[in-house]
Amino acid sequence: MGDGAAYRVVRYRPDDPAPRGTGRLLVPHGGGLALDGADLPPGTALLLPPVHPARLAGPALALTVPVRELPPAALDGVVLVDVSAGLGRVVADMVRAVAAEADALGAAEFDAVCDRIGELLRMAVAGRAADRPSAPGNLAEVETVVRRYVRAHATDPGLTGRVVAQQLGWSLRQIQLALQRAGTTPRALIREERLRLVRDRLRDPADRAVSITDLAHAAGFSSAGALSTAFRRRFGVSPRELRRGRG
């Protein structure tokens, strides 16, 4: 489900490569996993980068995750995630639940749930990295908090990277560095969250009577034209075309 390099939940098969521009979270499902022939401890999930040479085996559910949603650590290599307890277990349970209910979820609902899984996954990995006294772990934690703040305040038309920094009590440079490691910028992240919000509302029957102009303003865009230009560039269709079912 979704657009382009989007979320997908399937049973893992070694001969089924991830779509271009995505990584995958492999959650054990009825047994343990093995990495390069070595059995992993029970309750261990694997977060795979877009391209990985590792040899994997074991029954698992594979959640395809767009690169823009991957924790920075997952861009450098395979990450082991403890899903036996705490936040990691919550993530694993959510992956299993969304896999079981995928056919009953609409596209907007599916993407919304997976967005939350991605956010919690970044928090889990950031917490793991923060246990090590290294700058990358700190930046990963900053990125997670910034993403959560932007998602909660995306409709504020005055939201900028500087505003985010002021509200969180960090320097703008610190936020820029954290997001740079994830391949984005404060401005791009804010635009992405606003576009997702509009996309979800366009798919929601309850908002069918809301005009594109009103949706644009409600999501923080200056005009319907600004929204349409950014929306087409991101999703390949205009807001009106998506509403008509062409996206």
TrEMBL record:
Q: Where is the HTH araC/xylS-type domain?
A: 144-245
Q: Is the Mitochondrion keyword given for this protein?
A: no
Do the record's keywords include Amino-acid biosynthesis? no
Q: Could you name the domain of life of the organism this protein comes from?
A: Bacteria
The UniProt keyword set, sorted, is: DNA-binding, Transcription, Transcription regulation
Record-annotated membrane-spanning stretches: none
Which Gene3D superfamilies is this protein grouped with? Homeodomain-like
| Name of this chain's protein | AraC-like DNA-binding protein
Q: Which organism does this sequence originate in?
A: Actinomadura algeriensis
